[in-house]
UniProtKB/TrEMBL annotation:
Similarity remark: Belongs to the thiolase-like superfamily. Beta-ketoacyl-ACP synthases family.
Keyword Lipid biosynthesis attributed: yes
Main EC class the enzyme belongs to: transferase
Phylogenetic classification of the source organism: Bacteria, Pseudomonadati, Kiritimatiellota, Kiritimatiellia, Kiritimatiellales
Catalytic reactions of this protein: (9Z)-hexadecenoyl-[ACP] + malonyl-[ACP] + H(+) = 3-oxo-(11Z)-octadecenoyl-[ACP] + holo-[ACP] + CO2; a fatty acyl-[ACP] + malonyl-[ACP] + H(+) = a 3-oxoacyl-[ACP] + holo-[ACP] + CO2
NCBIfam families in alphabetical order: fabF, PRK07314.1
Molecular function in Gene Ontology: 3-oxoacyl-[acyl-carrier-protein] synthase activity
Matching PANTHER family: 3-OXOACYL-[ACYL-CARRIER-PROTEIN] SYNTHASE, MITOCHONDRIAL, POLYKETIDE SYNTHASE-RELATED
Protein name per the record: 3-oxoacyl-[acyl-carrier-protein] synthase 2
All residue ranges annotated as the Ketosynthase family 3 (KS3) domain in the record: 3-413
Amino acid sequence: MSGRKVVVTGLGVVSPVGSELGTFWDNIKNGRSGIGRVQQMDDIDQYPVQIAGEVKDLDVERFVGKKDARKMDPFSIYGVAASALAIEDAGIHAGNIDPERAGVLASSGIGGMQVMQKECLKAYEKGPRRVSPQLIPQMITNILSGYVSIKYGFKGPNFCITSACASGTHSIGEAMRMIQYGDADVMIAGGSEASVAMLGVAGFAALRATSRLNDDPERASRPFDLERDGFVMSEGAGMVILESEEHAKARGAKIYCYASGYGRTGDAYHVTAPDASAVQSARGMTLAIADAGLSVDDIDYVNAHGTSTPLNDKGETLAVKNALGEKKAYATAVSSTKSMTGHMLGAAGGVEAAIMALAVRDNIAPPTINYNTPDPDCDLDYVPNKMREMQINAALSNSLGFGGHNATLCFTKA
């Protein structure tokens, strides 16, 4: 497929390791963990899992009025904040865009879980007549895209993609396609999540998917390490501004990198477990490389899905080998920034796309922290514990979601 070139011109992140881009990137580069004991649940002692990556020190009123914030689920607040930061970073305003050529693809894997559980408890305790009229509009996953569109008057494509932990990456990839095909000139795209709550913590614990290293939270997220025992659930949002290169240059925008390639496949295998053969996750990477017009030899860095679960990390290691070939795979830097942020679920792809854009711009491969005991099944170069300065001309970012949803982005140097 050929089409218009797409560039990344703005980044906005709300995360456990910072909600200002400079702070966020400094913490990621220097391997600082955002994982700690859960603070927003008073009864956390009752849960087998008591740790998470929580958003800290976000000035909500900078982005959302106090009255509106009271009725919004936190996933919408985080997504609006990340979108505002990305738009500010890109220098976009009403005078330099056509609102009918600007769209929003802001997604979530779960949506308004906190609003839903609050109103559900209210219905059981006080009766159905006490349920808020805001329940439905605030819990649906697409409401974030609506909020952002309304806030900025963007009247182009406007919807969301819900594909579990691949939601943010799918959103950025599909937004890229819209610009390539000429459906829009500017897109805000990414994901948001706020599931550190009763149902989220209890549900993932029941699946035995999350780490139980409660007494040492900063070490709990250990992607590719032999002693990994599950992912650490986190919250936040990541949004990027994509533009056609022509549009960005016409308004004098700074350019982080090109959004050059996108691949997506389905395992057709299992509801929660990845296919051990890694054939389709590897094919997603191959499609992204081909879409960018590159060969495997051009890939310098892979931001792995790297959840810190036994099955994912083993399978993704095999996927990288299948996609790049063993010789190239062993020579390629692969790291999981979830070792610092935890797993932000539907927001992960948006946050990790921002990391990839910064890695390509600055020629820095972020580390995989807490990598201490090598696993024979995970034997690639995971950039252990310390960032690496290196030439990065082309990078991939993988996201793999429950249901067998695989998505890969390829960014290249501007």
